[in-house]
Specification:
This protein has 442 residues and is an alpha+beta fold. α5 packs parallel to α9, α19 runs antiparallel to α21 and α20 crosses α21.
Length: 442
């Protein structure tokens, strides 16, 4: 790690250099100075013990602070003005509903003792809301990258109400940052695997305001985040909602999920990064089914019998290359051999099945920026062996989540399989009938 010197100093130098450029406004006096988020710093350090971390250092310590300044502090422009205008809660119904429901959800799950103060009560701006969060404290606001700022600016210039633009285009992204938690004291330890962290934040966000993950109106959802929600739904079912949200908030995964699952998922996370060695840490959830199978397998002592013990006894991360790829190993295990398949269906399974069906009716598109829109599927297909619900590929669809393939809870598929149903296809208008068959087991 000596090769990189002090990562915080490298971030601060890039930030200072960008702030000194002509045409850049000074940070407001009371605005918290951006910093390299501590969990990212510790993840970079861990990555450097395994491979060349140069792409991560350049991305998080140089590119991100430059983009943040360029996003927040240009001399003028309607997109920049949008990020700094005080937010009137009465004029941003999505953001208002989501932020208030977020606190209630955390209390209901036992993740905090009392509902946090209304995040919009002091009329903060979008920039200030993001700066209070763990990752927004040092990274640019997602949803307001350069191409998206052009769209924001064009809509404001066309006389659209700025609050309507913010509520449609940015409320989901702001709430997602809040789901990662607030700035917290520096803890020099690597965070849980970033896919798990993102899955937990996506699940919390969908619990607070589902349309930020599964839209009813084009552009209101955070694009590309829905596949993380599938993983989050499954982890909440396997380990409990409180455990999942505590991991997203920085709790040790070994404590939240148990040592066996925590160690297996941690090793899988680093093996997954070693496959591509590029930022960001959580690029997508394309291997989401394998992640869920690995977590399920780690709950049982007899499954993947040699791998969990070798993972548990592994000291440090330096030997993760010596293990077989855990995600590949888990993906090869049939659901019928995993614990979840044999369990009795419960309310979490039913809720996940409903969400799986909804996922078939959305699409990621370039229109002109990366967005998630409602979609009219022609047919849905269920395979009870693979426990996957799918639809046809959409011509305009982009990204690794197209076509979608979502896990339907194995206990529900087991009941259908016992009734002789192996594969089932229905027209889109019959999605409700498909859900009924799943929930009734016939």
């Amino acid at each position: 790690m000596e090769r990189w010197g002090d990562l915080d100093a490298r971030y601060d130098a890039a930030l200072a250099s960008e702030l000194a450029r002509p045409g850049t406004r000074a940070l407001p006096v009371h605005f918290p100075r951006p910093r390299l988020p501590p969990p990212l710093r510790e993840s970079i350090r861990s990555a450097a013990s395994l491979a060349d971390a140069a792409p991560l250092v350049e991305f998080y310590c140089e590119r991100m602070p430059r983009m943040l300044v360029d996003q927040l502090l240009p001399d003028d422009g309607p997109a920049g003005d949008l990020l700094w205008m005080p937010i009137d809660a009465d004029r941003v119904p999505r953001l208002r509903s989501a932020t208030r429901a977020l606190g209630r959800a955390l209390v209901a799950a036992g993740a905090c003792h009392e509902v946090p103060p209304d995040a919009l009560g002091s009329r903060p701006c979008a920039a200030a809301l993001a700066a209070r969060t763990l990752l927004g404290s040092g990274l640019p606001i997602v949803g307001a990258y350069p191409a998206e700022r052009e769209l924001l600016a064009s809509e404001v210039k066309s006389c659209a109400d700025p609050y309507d633009v913010l509520d449609l285009r940015l409320s989901g992204n702001l709430v997602h940052e809040m789901c990662h938690g607030e700035r917290r004291p520096d803890r020099p330890r690597p965070p849980p695997p970033w896919l798990v962290v993102e899955a937990g934040a996506a699940h919390l966000g969908a619990t607070a305001f589902s349309r930020h993950l599964q839209p009813e109106v084009p552009g209101e959802a955070v694009p590309g985040l829905a596949p993380f929600l599938m993983v989050g739904d499954a982890f909440a079912r396997l380990f409990g909602t409180r455990a999942l949200w505590s991991v997203a908030a920085g709790e040790s995964i070994d404590v939240a999920f148990g040592e066996r699952a925590g160690r297996a998922l941690t090793v899988a996370g680093w093996q997954d990064w070693l496959r591509r060695r590029e930022p960001p840490f959580a690029k997508d959830a394309a291997r989401g089914v394998a992640w869920v199978k690995l977590a399920d397998a780690a709950r049982a002592t007899s499954l993947l019998s040699t791998l969990p013990e070798r993972v548990r006894n592994l000291e440090g991360l330096s030997r993760v290359r010596d293990l077989p790829d855990l995600l590949d190993a888990a993906a090869a295990v049939p659901w019928r051999e995993l614990p979840w398949w044999a369990e009795e269906p419960n309310s979490a399974d039913a809720a996940m099945a409903r969400r799986s069906a909804r996922a078939m009716f959305q699409i990621d598109v370039l229109a002109p920026t990366f967005q998630t829109h409602p979609y009219r599927a022609s047919a849905l297909h269920l395979d009870t062996d693979s426990c996957l619900l799918t639809r046809e590929r959409a011509e305009r669809g982009v990204g690794p989540g197209e076509p979608p393939a979502w896990i339907v809870p194995p206990p529900l598929c087991r009941r259908l399989a016992r009734a002789g149903v192996r594969r089932l296809s229905v027209g889109a208008d019959d999605a409700r009938a498909l859900l009924s068959r799943l929930l009734e087991g016939r």
